[in-house]
Design brief:
single chain; 32% strand; mainly beta; 3% helix; 17-stranded parallel β-sheet; Pectate Lyase C-like
């Protein structure tokens, strides 16, 4: 992402309609007993059919026998490794289960395509215990079994997470050398497909790495790469996460549709931008969302960005740079409040916290459409 790219200045809020928005009637589940509430009740945008939660009425595996004690980390790892639909029966109260990093096996399950749907029923939170990432899908990791000669473009596994929380995940910066993992404090998704509905990701980190450039590391909550179809993120909350870039989510070349969600108090902790300025390790872009690469679109509707912070380019909420200037940023029925911009570009009292380079302006448009949205 070249530093010389000039940001699209967003100074007016247009009125209009987009994305077929209306009343969704959605209600997020709530947690208690020390567990963070799962999902969010906010937003009025109607998701397309493909963005809705999956049917889990006939689970492949049910973790637990009705008691909290029966829902162990080992059972969660085994269930996810077995593929199919995973649900939980851990009692009436919300429950946090501390797990090791759980890997999706590319040829796992009855279907032998590794696909898995994980549904926490609005009560289950998986924790990395501040020591490890929680969930990893990587079609190009040989240890997870190659299933295609073009692992970078294969369409499986299909990973769906819904009605579940993730907390205290840790993606270690040094993995960029040892394992090629560029981010994801809670979830790392490379290849296949991915959808998240009514989830909460809290207090997860993508850390820096001593003595090396970290300009491309991103995603305190989720990192995505080489996913074969647009990613849907619906009715979800990201709070208190941090990454070198993209405190909540980060990706390269991925189109996201984010609906009825909340990003609050996430932060991009790096310094030096991308590519890194001399004398820095790089990063600090996109307090909530970092999206870089070629030919992608970021679509946001019914979503709140509150109190997110970045260190570079005034990108307190979002940084989006489409390197081939063949992309778009579409925002509708959303609010941006108190996102902090400490960079030296686009800095002002009423700055929206967005740095975007989407489309070649020779075509007559900057690729930015913002409707029914407020900035405070």
């Amino acid at each position: 992402m070249p530093r010389w790219m000039v940001p699209a200045l967003i100074s007016a809020i247009a009125a209009g309609a987009a994305l077929g928005c209306g009343s969704s009637g959605k209600g997020g589940a709530s947690g208690s007993g020390g567990a963070a509430p799962i999902g969010t009740d906010g937003g009025t945008c109607i998701p397309p059919a493909e963005a809705n939660a999956a049917d889990v009425s006939n689970p492949t595996t049910v973790v637990g026998d009705g008691t909290a004690a029966s829902c162990t980390a080992a059972k969660v790892v085994s269930a996810v490794g077995g593929g199919g639909v995973v649900t939980f029966n851990c009692g009436a109260d919300p429950l946090t289960i501390v797990v090791p990093e759980i890997a999706i096996i590319n040829d796992g399950g009855v279907t032998k395509d590794g696909s898995v749907t994980i549904d926490g029923g609005g009560k289950i939170t998986l924790s990395g215990g501040g020591k490890n990432r929680i969930l990893r899908q990587n079609t190009c990791d040989e240890t997870l079994h190659f299933t295609s000669t073009r692992c970078d473009v294969q369409t499986t596994p299909h990973l769906i997470v819904q009605n579940i929380g993730f907390t205290a995940g840790l993606g270690v910066g040094d993995q960029v050398d040892s394992g090629g993992l560029n981010g994801g404090g809670a979830l790392y998704v490379q290849g296949g497909t991915f959808k998240a509905v009514n989830i909460t990701v809290t207090n997860s980190q993508q850390t820096n790495a001593s003595g090396q450039l970290v300009q491309d590391l991103a995603g305190g909550g989720i990192y995505a790469l080489e996913v074969s179809s647009p990613i849907y993120l619906v009715g979800s909350t990201f709070q208190g996460n941090s990454g070198v870039n993209g405190g909540a989510i980060g990706s390269i070349g991925e189109s996201w549709t984010v609906l009825n969600s909340v990003f609050q108090n996430n932060s991009a902790t790096g310094h030096g931008e991308n590519p890194a300025r001399s004398g820095t390790q790089g990063g600090g872009l996109g307090g909530a969302i970092y999206n870089d690469g070629i030919s992608f679109t970021l679509t946001i509707c019914g979503t709140k960005f509150i109190g997110n912070q970045a260190n570079e380019l005034g990108s307190g909420a979002i940084v989006q740079v489409v390197d081939d200037v063949m992309g778009n940023l579409v925002i509708d029925q959303s609010t941006f409040t108190g996102n902090s911009d400490t960079g030296d570009v686009q800095q002002s009292a009423n700055h929206p916290g967005i740095y975007v380079q989407a489309r070649d302006q020779v075509s007559g448009t900057a690729g930015v459409t913002i409707t029914n949205t407020t900035f405070n």
